[in-house]
LSM2-LSM8 complex subunit LSM8
Amino acid sequence: MSAGLVNSYLNKRVCIITVDGRTLVGTLISVDMSTNVFLQRAVERVIRSPDDDEPSAEIELGTHMIRGDTVCLVGLVDEPLDASIDWTKVKGSTIGTTKH
């Protein structure tokens, strides 16, 4: 990942997918891709499968550190679109691990 690109995301709301399939959303406050990524107001989105009767969930994490070697994808969040989605009603298949 390009350091310049990641630095352009500082202080913006991002979505991070990790190698183990976790989805985290928060404000990117610090990056050292060789070691850690820091999010402020971080939330983990736990998306349940369509067969699961339990609703999907957003787990508040606050300020959260993610090991840089576990980051698979970082993308900017479209905040108006994101705010319009009721994440408890979203269903989907599990993202498998990318680590083999």
Summary: The chain is about 10% helix and 45% strand. Helices lie at 3-8, 79-83. The chain has a mean pLDDT of 88. The chain has one domain: 3-89.
